[in-house]
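Protein 1 of 2
SEQ + STRUCT:
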Amino acid sequence: MTAGRRTVGFNFLDQPALPAPQVSEAEARRIVSSYYGIDGAAVSLGSQQDKNFLIHRSGTADVVGVLKVANPAFNGVELAAQDAAAKLIAEAEPELRIAVPLPNRDGAKLTTVDGLLVRLLRYLPGGTLIDADYLGPAAVAGLGEVAARVSRALTGFAHDGLDRVLQWDLRYGADVVAALIGHVEDPAHRERLLTATGEAWERITRVADDLPRQAVHLDITDANVVVSPAADGTRRPDGVIDFGDLTDTWAVSELAIAASSVLGHTGTEPWSILPAVRAFHAIRPLTAAEIDALWPMVVLRTAVLIVSGAQQAELDPDNAYVTEQSDGEWRMFEQATGVPMDVMTALIRADLGVAAPPAESEGAVPMISDGASDAVVTLDLSPSSDLYDFAFTPGGWLPPDVEDRFARRAVADGAALVLTRFGEPRLGPAPALSQRSAEVVPTGVRLWPAQPLTLVAPWDGEVIDSGADTVTVRGDAYEVTLTGVRPVTGATAVRAGDPVAGADAAQWADVAVRPAGAVTAPFLVRPEVAPGWLARARDPRPVLGLPPDIAVSPVADLVERRDRSFAPVQEFYYREPPQIERGWRHYLMSTAGRCYLDMVNNVTVLGHAHPRVADTAARQLRKLNTNSRFNYAAVVEYSERLAAELPDPLDTVFLVNSGSEASDLAIRLALAATGRRDVVAMREAYHGWTYGTDAVSTSTADNPHALATRPDWVHTVESPNSFRGKYRGPDVGRYAGEAVAQIEQLVADGRAPAGFICESVYGNAGGMALPDGYLRQVYAAVRGAGGLAIADEVQVGYGRLGHWFWGFEQQDVVPDIVSMAKSTGNGYPLGAVITSRAVAEAFRSQGYFFSSTGGSPLSCAIGLTVLDVLREEDLQGNAVRVGGHLKARLEALADKHSIIGTVHGVGLYLGVEMVRDRERLEPATGETAAICERMLELGVVIQPTGDHSNILKTKPPLCIDIESADFYVDALDRVLTEGW
């Protein structure tokens, strides 16, 4: 504590803390009536030190303000400083809402009532961040931004009321813990708190003299930052309340305290604070000393909260607010101490882009001295590595000995020594599905010698650790640890070149190098914290006597490159998209080594990287790939197989490259066959991006101006949306009647349609089935008018519905033209249009038809293989079994969470519609986006669909299994339970 400092607030050393004032709700009502002229109702709010009341006008829900009765430990000078600071921030940062004091009847901001100091503060609606169990990155960043704006506004603010000693001031944090530790009952807890405090304080004192000081709010936390609900359902932090801890101290305390409050929330981990740090740094840049002090201050803050709460609980045992905070404060401490402080500091530096590149750790003598380094093979174990192309087991994941297999293959090809890479995320044989990222980033290298290998000391030093299979040698600057070896020296001191360990042939040994005295890193760490660990490690290759390996490219570089060369209108999923370079069955793998459950890729109907498709493509490419004007068997065989999948009279096939091209051609066929130009389409539908398919696409999610920009030859009928449309329940049959009436009116107007196009199951609406009998009535009307019925099966066809191979079968109709794609090539660009011979022949009036790769030998070979695998692996049956289980679980989830309005669809063509109100069916658009972002963190790829972007598009590869379906539902349950 600073000698001679005047104490005007809490003095945790010289006097006990005081309990909150004992003021009742009735007394609060009397105060606001007598002194503020307000006839109001008072509701007590939680607080550790003061007594707070929410004041409503009597008989209404209107909130007038918050009555704050100050703890007797505070005086008028301090409160005046708080009010002045609030006024200053409100003026300097107009984007922030600030709880400034309101005047009493006499115009004063401070009122004395029975010896207590009272203020009525402006009420900020919206609730605080503490109301959410889970804080997403956007909310955390918002917290950091608010803290930065407050810090910026208070720069240079001075007031006598800042001259105080507070237990929350981190300059006194170590003293607070030492003074109050006796209030913590558990001896083990006391020891942990004292150890963490000592380590944090030692790091803070190293840079304390370089830390800027200023006026600090000191309590920008989840409980004191208020949010404004946005129109899209998101919550933006923009308000600040409770200036009770205002003081003059280290400026970085503002961020440390804000960041620490994040750690008490469900689902957060130490690195969850990084968005707040980035946001703060962007507005109010941190100095090097502040970065070094930040995480130790977070640790210290959590310890102070625990001991202060323990003390306050003894003083005020009936204060529920105090006792309820205990579990959350211990969670904060567990998170703050879950990663070594130096590692978290290095992670923060790396995240801010201010980390210095680590120096190479060269040894005086190469550790490998017996010639093995002459034939070294470095294994690429990254997710994009070609090594994995044949490593996945059919229907499963990687075998447990996958790395051994790779090493043996390299040795068989002549390698004397096989090494893995340092710092490069890898795939491993661990289970594929997990809500938690796996430890996949190596902080060292592994080596596999073909013959027994002797490893020598790279420098003069000492053996500081030696066990049954491990040796650590420390030099002046660095130390090296060998694991999985045979120690060959019993000496404690070694000279460079002395043998220290033997590595057996055909066995893995791990090598890790770090600065001398640095904390020992796990050999594999999680990708989120890897930059922190890697900053405290060194590439072992130079110490082994080998040249450094390649560096790992950050994902951000790829996003920036994409933006420069790839038209931005071609958007990508997610705010911070993972880099996906590999897929397998219903899994997607990022370059960070994270495995995701893929719930949206209905293109890969068989699953990603199906070996049969890959083998077919490779074989055909080695033989021939040309166009369908040449005579070869594959185009005939595929056309016959496709036509056989459809009922009569659909027997003639056109092959194209995509769904857009297929549906565009379908429209052109109808125009040519009828000699007409008008087409009827359904609202809320999407058919493609070509001129023709865009014209009939009416989904405002894909084009906000879709309905206003239709050409005059397109006529739309009402979306038969049985969930939120104008007809529901027993009235849904009226949709078909209205569509028939519109078609009849077109005929009467002399504009008889050439055709009617719609998806057989409503795709963009989330897999919603059409009302029973809808297509039967509408098809009859359009045919009665001389037009043709077009079924867009691009998304729904190929067995996805389970009970039916084609969507139109569910409606018990046969269309005149069918367009299909996506599933037909399992991700390869292949589409088809199938119609009758008469309709196909009518197209000759338009000239000839040709598609360069439509019907190529390669596309046809792949198409045939897809049909074979669908049947042989019974994927349509799997859609029935897994799809039925999945829908039942999702419907049960809807009973638990009111945000789920309904579950659309059948088989593996489902949609989970999110609403804010089940009565008004208000779309939960912002919430759905936030849910998808959180699901990605938990290992699930899911995206919104529908005109309101409020439906979870649930259309996974048809190979998905029950375990994965349950994983999806369990993750969604967790997200909806935590909030967002």
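Protein 2 of 2
SEQ + STRUCT:
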Amino acid sequence: MKWITYDPALLEDITARLDLRVPNAAAIHTVAEAIAEGDGREVVCDLATGVGKTYILAGLVEYLSTQGVRNILVVTPGTTIQDKTIGNFTPGHPKYVGGMDAELLVITSENFDRGQVGDALHSDDVTKLFVFNVQQLIRPTDKTSRRVRAQDEFIGTGLYQHLQEVDDLVVIADEHHVYNTKAKAFSQAIGELGARAVVGLTATPAPEVKPIFRYSLAEAIADGYVKIPVIVYRPDGRKDEETVLADACHLLRIKDAAWTAWAQSQGVTPVRPVLFVVCRDISDADRIANRLTSNDMFPAEGQVLTITSQSSDIALRALEAVEEPDSPVRVVVSVNKLKEGWDVKNIGVIVGLRALASETLTEQVLGRGLRLPFGRRVGTPMVDSVDLVAHESYRQLLANKEALLQQVQPNGGGDVEEERPQPSTEAASSASQQAEQGILNFTSRARVVGDDVVDGSLLLQVESMNAAVQQGERDQRAVATLRARVPGAPVIRFPRREREILPVRFSFSYITDAAARAEGAAYAHEFKVTLARQAVDAQRGIDGSVDVRVTAAESVDATQRKVTIAELRGDLYERIWNIGHVEETLAESRAAERVVREFLAGAGVSSEDVNHDWGELRARQAATALGKLVKAAYDNRKLQPTFAFRPVDVPTVPPPPMPSNVVNKWEKFRKDKWYEGWEHSIEPVAQFDAGSTEYALAHLFDGSSSVQWWLRNYDHSPVWIERDNGRKYYPDFIVLDTQDTYWVVEGKANDRAGDAEVLEKMRAAEDWARFVRDDGRFGTWRYLFATESTIRNASNSWESLLALGKPE
């Protein structure tokens, strides 16, 4: 096949349909560009656990299939990930990734030797997605055999050999670190396939690998894509196993109440947290599971599930369903079996019954517990965090904090190349106060964004058991309090403009003269109808018997009813007019007459010709052919976007719950905090992503006498602007000034202001505002884009901000 080309527009379409997160979309773009040469190169993406490697895999498969690649092999390290991957590409499965257009034939070790699969392997019209674990692919030895290497009657060769022979094979290696050069058999099994490209996905690349794309755990936590890890300790120093388990169960119940309360306040399906306990060995797991089923913990049937290498199929099925609302499982006890490939969103508390070490933190806390229960951060700490009950002494935890942060933020992390600034007296005092309260937060170092230093985000939290319990109680109270708009604040009707993709209205005018003539050319000659004649011949054989034979005799032309040209023109016109695809207008009538005229011209009948009658068969088939021409044109008509305004009222009703981590608006900026005390905010509290843009803008709005009200807007709110690629753009603010003009305001770092995506969003917002103003029903709306420099130079003046921002 001709190899694929790098197609950014297609990637944007896939990003929109699969609703990919920003890092996932960036990873796919990087991979697609890197493999465009088709020279067999191997590329690796290093992405933090919990960010969504499944969606990267799905996006790559969709991209390759659309580009014409028909053989894609996904290699997994074991059956757990293999089963999950098969589910990801099986319509109707709970883990199926929606939004894909590719029609895939999923081929596994269970079905590759069936006849239907054998036929598909040799078809260029079917995209084959092979999902195998690496053990099924490695070269057999004297003591082992591999079915994929054996001759297959339907394939014609062994499956492995077939994959070696196809010219468009792409291998995607999930958990790529398993196949490093030290694992020679695994690496050889992939290398000998001779693929056009090998793409590795991993959260822990081998030391010798240099990924082409990195997205660290620090970035994932800071960007809000995963939970915040919380290490829970006991001030009294008790760390015996009985205490650890009792505290973990207590924390789980507190989290369960907080999660349930939040879900009920939002009217969404509750997600129940589970406790994940990692033991040393199978006997240890059995003993711990038995203790957890006692009356003071989780005694009900099915609440404690033990998963080891000896687990039954029933236990494994219960594990698959642990996210379901009706699952009875509250605790999963495991022996290192689930360190990879078990992707669930409802781990709330983790216990590692061995010394707290970097290996434990990486494999258990950062591997299995980071996925968000409701798909996004919700602003409630007990929902947005995962607790590791460590019960090391507080002093030991602080002594190990650098080791812990190394796992969260490799090599110190951060985006500032210069030395980390020494903590100020104020910061040291704040840390001391936190320590006295039993809480210590570790944040990423400040980042230079544009010209400003933006405060870091919370990456890791160490807190006492008492502090954790108190936080849970605060969260339960908070979600019962709604974040209603401030008394006297207005409800803003935002004129959301939504796109509808509809087929264009069909017209006979879309059918060209050339197309009609070409179709009519097949009817330039008369169609004869013959009478078949058969002769009966009888011959006597040697034995006297008579042999009767039927033989063909010369056929003769049959007579046909003749159709005049005038009658033919009328029949052809009626055939296409009565299909009902067009409006009954004079223009369409004339267009239909033209199509008939050109069709007959192709058949050699001029518009003045009235003397050449047609046979009935020829006339009937001509009418059918012309009808098919029109139907094909109708079916292939273009799609066109149309837009309609569908206004939404904000703030939303019912309002969301009040967060519990609220501080005064004059406190130092922290991304994980909510701020109160505003004078002109429509809502009582607001949260921000960056101190130098959004937080600074909020203070500018709030301190200006020219601003009546402002409203902070968040991702997933009903306030969005549709972009050219169909994705949604969520601007930062809506501002109502004293001239009764509504402003959609976006703040952006200096070094991002020129990014292609940022500029595309800005153009979409400016177009949206222009359409709203022209419509005239929703008042005056404008769009303001402000960089860090613009915000700083505006010196807290709304008028200055407008002058510097130069809105359209």
